[in-house]
Amino acid sequence: MQHTLPKLPYALDALTPHISKETLELHYGKHHQTYVTNLNKLLVDSEFATASLEEIILKTSGNSDFAGLFNNAAQVWNHTFYWHCLSPNGGGEPTGTLKEMIEKKFGSLETFKAEFKTACLTQFGSGWAWLVQEGSSLKIVKTPNAETPMTKGLKPLLTCDVWEHAYYVDYQNRRPDYVDTFLAHLVNWDFVAQQLDD
Ligand code: MN
Fold first, then answer.
1. Domain with 153 in it
2. Ion ligand 1: residues, Cβ under 5 Å
3. Which CATH number covers residue 28?
4. How many domains is the chain built from?
5. Contact 105/137 with Cβ under 8 angstroms?
């Protein structure tokens, strides 16, 4: 199965001034595309040639013989998920069940944001911060490099890419400013809510 770069759910310049067109041209057009290209190369004549992206991730996780396949497949999945977590009309507040679950777990949206930001800032080096569903509750986790919570049975709801390539053009070394902007102006709470399992 040939994997393809999924369409971005908005224009390359749609997230300005928070994330520039230049960042999306590089991050989506080059980095994400490269993970897709490398994945397809690694799949040639592999036992996973007909597997879905999720199957590849789950079946290669933790197996050093398949580190390249895992890293590229997971990065393809993580980036597609990240793009959908962002919106030109993002930010604001969640509503409905998601709002109730956040308030039950964290006390308030502000406390959630503070804890999510801490996860983003304490992920040493490259990786991701996530809001995940665990049963009927929520949890913040962080993963290094290409790792994804789905391999631990956790359901991803929201992610922030904290690899330097996600923010260096716009924020240089200021990861805290990127995360603040992500939370204040970019999170697509409707998409996050749609990921909840009943
Ligand atoms: Mn990235």
1. 96-194
2. 161, 163, 166
3. 1.10.287.990
4. 2
5. yes
Distance 100 CA to ligand 1 centre (A): 30
- 155-172, pLDDT tens digit by residue? 999 999 999 999 999 999
- Clarify whether residues 79 and 111 are in a common domain: no
Tell how far the Cα of 107 is from the centroid of ligand 1, in angstroms.
30
Same domain, 74 and 104: no
8-56 pLDDT, tens per residue? 999 999 999 999 999 999 999 999 999 999 999 999 989 999 999 999 9
Ligand 1 midpoint to CA 20 (Å): 14
Q: Is the peptide bond before 6 cis (omega within 30 degrees of 0)?
A: no
Q: Find all residues with CB under 8 Å of 4, minimum gap 6, and list them.
A: 36
Q: How far is the CA of 112 from the centre of ligand 1 (A)?
A: 23
Please state the pTM of the whole predicted model. 0.97
What's the CA-to-centroid distance between 165 and ligand 1, angstroms? 6
